[in-house]
Amino acid sequence: MLYLSNNQPMNSAAFRKAVFDFAEAAKGLLLVHPATWYNWPDWPEYNRALIGGGSRGHDQYGEFEVTIAEANHPIMAGVPKAFKIRDELYHFQRDDQGTPIQVLASGRSPVTGKTFPVVWLTKHPKARIVCITLGHVGAAHEHPAYKAILQNALKWAAGK
Fold first, then answer.
1. Across the strands, what pairs with 81?
2. Given CA atoms 54, 57, 58, 61 in this order, what sign does their dihedral have?
3. C-alpha distance from residue 26 to each of 9, 84, 137, 144 (Å)
């Protein structure tokens, strides 16, 4: 399992290659919160291949509703069909040339009414990739639905 939740520079060519080698070896990746952002303009392959797009903006920290789209998926086991959470709602945008995604849950902006994926699978040809935009602060990590999603995602991506 590779768990990434960062937005700091990852400039090492060896590290970048290792991330893609890991995916090509059919391993599991859990890409959380800042790792789903467009962080590295000089590494567009990361977002295109592993995320299927990315975020460049978000609503201000606050409460919004999350709705589960795929209630029968193992990652959503024990998660209510809808719940409210205080977090940043990332404005995820699909990359039309990126790897396809399967949205498992979406958040609805109380500001604009628009919905954005908050949990999805990237349909990589080999790796098991779960992307989660939730998780900005500790309070979000204590939310029972977030805990269930994260634990289930870890098991699913690990092939358990």
1. none
2. positive
3. 25, 34, 31, 30
Residue 21 token pair? 């080698």
Give the sign of the dihedral formed by CA 79, CA 81, CA 86, CA 89. positive
What is the chain's pLDDT, residue by residue, as a tens digit (160 residues)? 999 999 998 999 999 999 999 999 999 999 999 999 999 999 999 999 999 999 999 999 999 999 999 999 999 999 999 999 999 999 999 999 999 999 999 999 999 999 999 999 999 999 999 999 999 998 999 999 999 999 999 999 999 8
Angle at 36 (CA atoms; ends 121, 85), nearest 5 degrees: 85
Taking the alpha carbons at both ends of the chain, their separation in whole angstroms is 11
Cβ proximity of 35 and 4 under 8 Å: yes
pTM over 0.90? The answer is yes
